[in-house]
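Hello,

I think I submitted the flavin-adenine dinucleotide job twice by accident. Can you confirm which output corresponds to this input? Input:
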Amino acid sequence: MKIVVAIKQVPVRDSQLRIESDQRWIQEDDLGFEINEPDAYALEEALQLKEKHGGEVVALCAGPSRATQTIREALAKGADRAIHIEDDNLRDLDTFGIATLLAGAVKAEKPDLILTGLQSDDLGYGQTGVVLAELLGVPHATIIMQVEVQGGSIQVKRELEGGWFQHIEMPLPAVLTIQSGINKLRYATLMGIKKAKSKEIKSVTPAAAPAATAVLERVYVPQKSKQTQIFEGDAKSAAAKLVEKLKFEVRII
Amino acid sequence: MGVDYLLVDSQFNQEELLVRQTARQFVEDRVIPVIRDCYRDGRFPMDLIPEMGRLGFFGANLEGYGCAGMSNVEYGLLMQEIERGDSGLRSFVSVQGALVMYPIHRYGSEEQKQRWLPRLQAGAAIGCFGLTEPGFGSNPAGMLTRARQEGSDWVIDGEKTWITNGSLADVAVVWARTPEGIRGFLVERGTPGFTTSDIHGKLSMRASVTSSLAFSECRVPGAAMLPGAKGLKGPLSCLSQARFGIGWGVIGAAMDCYETARVYSTVRKQFDDRPIASHQLVQEKLAWMITEITKAQLLALHAGRLKDQGRLEPAHVSMLKRNNVAMALECARLARDLMGANGIIDEYPIMRHLCNLETVKTYEGTDHVHALVIGERVTGVAAYR
Ligand SMILES: Cc1cc2nc3c(=O)[nH]c(=O)nc-3n(C[C@H](O)[C@H](O)[C@H](O)COP(=O)(O)OP(=O)(O)OC[C@H]3O[C@@H](n4cnc5c(N)ncnc54)[C@H](O)[C@@H]3O)c2cc1C
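Support: Only one job matched these inputs. Its output is below.
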C-alpha cells in the first residue's frame, strides 16, 4: 500500500506570539516550529499501516525552506521519502490554492491512501484535506479515529459529537483527515535520525496556483468585550434603564 | 522547557535539533513523571533502560555494533536533555556509553566487541566502571587493586568503591595494577570471587545505584583483558569522554533550575501583591543565571565542534567540566534561594538537582583537580602533589 501523508509545519504550541506591525500575520523570527499535531498522528497512522500491510509512506509538505526540519522528522520516524513544495510565500494562498498544489503532487504519485491531519494548529480551517479530495476526485472522510484495511477498501471510524461514532466502509483510493489521539506517537530514534540523512527529499517549485479568494484581513489578539455598567438612581429608574438597554442595545427582549 | 537567550539554537543543524527533540520528549513523557518518587525511594527507574536502548541513547556517539553513530554535538545535546531530567539518569547513560562501551569499542578485541557492544547498546546488558578505590579517588595512579597472571588466566584482588551501577552491572570494566602497568579487565557478574554491595545513605544521586566492588582471588580468562589499553591513560581517556558529556549534561540541570525559578518568580507575590520578579535583587539573580547558562552553552558547543574535528584535548575538557558544573551548581543554589521554602521541597526539581550536582562536582575529577589540569596547561608546572 502506498500512502501519501500531507504534513504542515506550525509554530510550537505555547509559543509567545507577537503580531506583525502590519497585522497580517505573527512575527516568525524568533519562533520555534514543529509538526502540526494532527499531522503527527496522520504520519504515525501511515507508518503503522505500512508496518502491518507493507508498502511505502511518502511525506508531502508545502511550506517555506524551514519546513525541511519537519520533513526530516517525518523521515527520521520512518517515512521512506518526501516531497517538499517549497516556497516562502505560500501564505498568500488560501486553502484552495494550497490544496491545488498538494493535489498536483499527489496525482503524480498515484497513492492508495492519502492522510492529512484534521486541521492545522495555526489557521485551523479544517478544509485542506477535504478540498484536496474533491480536487483528486476521490472520496474522503473526516475526523478519523480508526483505520482498518480490508483488501481494496477500508473501514474507518469517525468521531461525531456527543460521544457518538460513525463506522463506514470506503473504496480506495481515498483521503482521510486524522484526529489527534488516534494512536500513540513514536519518537524519532537516533538511528532513524541518522538514516534520514540519506533519504530523498524531492524539492519542487509550486505550479501556478489559483489566486486566493479568501484573504486573511487582520490578525489580532482576542479583545475582551466584557463590560460592566452600573445604573445609578433608585430601583425604579434603574429598572427602567435596564429594560431600555435590553430592548434596544442588546436586543434580547 | 527550552532555554535560548542568545539564539544559540541557530548554531545547531536539523539533525542536532531532532536528537534534542527526541531526548526532550522522552524525558518529559517518561522521566519527569517518575523521577521524584525514584529519588525519594532511592531507586533507579529500571524500566526506562530498554526504551533508552531502543532510542539509541547508549553509546550514541560510537560507530557500528548497533550504535547510533551520532556526532559529538548530537551526543552532547542528548546528555543535556537527559540531565534536565536527573543527573542520576545521565550518570547511568554516561557510564554505559562513555565508561563501558567506549573502552570496549576503543581498546577491546573483536570478540569482546561482538559479545558486549550490541547488548550494551540495546540496554540488554548493563555495565559499570571501576577505577576509584577507598584510598584512591583523585589519585587513581596509586591504586592497590592488582591482577596477576596464572597460566592464561588473570587473578584479581582488591576493592573498588563509589561505582555507579556496580550491583546492577552484567559486566564491570575493572582497572588493576599488573607487572606491565595498569590494565583493564571485563569482569562478568557472577564470576567467583567478585561481589558487590550498595552504598546506602546517599543524600545526592539518590535515583542512581552506587556500589562497592570486592575482588578476592577473582579469576578471569586471559580474553577478559582489554588488549588495547595499557597504563593510566586507558581509564583517563574514558573519563575524558564522560567529562565531555557532563559538561553538556549539567546545562540541562541548570536550565531546569533557571526556568523553574523564573516562572516561579513571576507567579509568587509578596509585598503589595507584586510578583517577586519585580524586585531588582531577584532579577539580578535571574540575569546571572541566564548569562552563565548561555556562556556554558557556547563553551559546550565549541568543545563539541572541536571534538568532531578531532581537536578537543583533555585540558580543554577540564575547562568544560569544571566551568559548567560550577555554573550549574550556582544556578541550583540561586534557584533554591529564589523559591524560598518551596525551594527545599521535592514538589519542585531544584533541591534534587542541587544535591545531585554536589556529586557531579566531585566525580570524574573534582573541581580542584580540573583547576590543576588547567593550571598545569598554562604554567607548565604540575601541582598535583
Ligand atoms: C555518586 C558517585 C558516583 C561515582 N561513580 C563512580 C564510578 O562509576 N566509577 C569510579 O571509578 N568512581 C566513581 N565515583 C568516585 C569519584 O570519581 C571520586 O569520588 C572522585 O574521584 C574523588 O575522589 P574522593 O572521593 O576519594 O575524594 P578525594 O580524592 O579524597 O578528594 C577530597 C577533596 O580533596 C581535594 N583534593 C584531593 N587531592 C587534591 C590535590 N592534589 N590538590 C587539591 N585538592 C585535592 C579534592 O578536590 C576534594 O575536594 C563516584 C562518586 C560518587 C559520589
